[in-house]
Design brief:
Elements: E1 14-18, E2 20-22, E3 32-34, H1 37-45, E4 49-52, H2 59-67, E5 71-74, H3 99-114, E6 119-122, H4 124-132, E7 137-138, H5 141-144, E8 162-166, H6 171-176, E9 179-183, E10 190-191, E11 198-203, E12 209-214, E13 220-223, H7 238-254
Parallel strand pairs: 1-4, 1-5, 5-6, 6-13
Antiparallel strand pairs: 2-3, 7-10, 8-9, 8-11, 11-12, 12-13
Helix pairs in contact: 2-3
């Protein structure tokens, strides 16, 4: 039976996005979830339907979330993955952690990987993917890699800070094209050793790894920048979300 939408509007696949957690404070005594509008807008612009998934430690609830979506975005935030998750102690330069957020995101990520769902990790989400695959992180670029260029911009995040080189033949190159791409940058940590089963897909001029993906050809992609904030200023960035949505739609039809 032909859908009444015709062929011009393929069904929007549901895409889960993990929100940030804001702990209670004097100003806002109630804990709350938060998500930059740009994430949801990018998924919508790319043809997906974004859903925020609140935290839970109930494994059945996580499976129920994933029953209802065809793709996952792990968003970024101003916090660090607890270093004990990659076998290290905290060193100077380490930022604040959000253990409840990381615990939830790791559980969702592992369940999504088990289902072979398309997964996109943004900034801290890329770092979490690396850790989930057994990789490690530079805890603070300034202290541990003084030769690195600037990676924390103070100007408008819709504008880029530095280029990256996107590796030919990578899944990321399918999203944005191979070769040089200008990116924004708001991170103080970075991938150190790449996790098992992952490979770098983009590198900054100073050698900092800016993109990772699985070697098995599935869509598990991490980028160290924020493509959703640049979809108007540098249009190829929307391709990251478009490809996620495309893979999610394929999965719905053939899954």
């Amino acid at each position: 039976m032909k859908s009444h939408h015709g062929h011009h509007h393929p069904r929007r696949p549901n895409i889960a996005i993990t929100p940030d957690f804001i702990a209670p404070s004097v100003e806002t005594p109630t804990a709350r979830y938060e998500l930059k509008v740009t994430y949801a807008d990018a998924v919508l612009r790319a043809g997906g339907l974004p859903f925020l998934i609140p935290y839970t430690d109930d494994h059945q609830a996580i499976e129920s979330y994933l029953d209802r979506v065809s793709g996952l975005v792990i968003s970024g935030g101003a916090f660090d993955v607890p270093p004990e998750l990659y076998g290290e102690a905290a060193r100077e330069g380490m930022g604040p952690t959000k253990p409840n957020r990381t615990t939830f995101e790791l559980a969702v990520l592992k369940a999504a990987l088990h289902r072979r769902l398309p997964v996109l990790g943004i900034c801290g989400g890329m770092q979490l993917i690396n850790v989930a695959f057994g990789g490690t992180l530079v805890q603070d670029l300034k202290l541990e890699l003084p030769s690195a260029g600037p990676h924390q911009q103070h100007h408008d995040r819709a504008q880029p800070l530095h280029p990256v080189e996107v590796r030919e033949g990578s899944v990321l190159a399918e999203c944005v094209g191979k070769g040089q791409l200008m990116v924004n940058s708001t991170h103080h940590q970075a991938v150190k050793t790449v996790g098992n089963g992952l490979q770098p897909s983009a590198v900054a001029p100073d050698g900092v790894i800016e993109g990772i993906e699985t070697k098995d050809g599935g869509f598990v992609v991490g980028v160290q920048w924020h493509p959703e904030q640049m979809i108007d200023s540098v249009p190829p960035h929307l391709g990251v979300y478009k490809t996620l949505v495309h893979k999610a739609r394929d999965r719905r039809q053939h899954g």
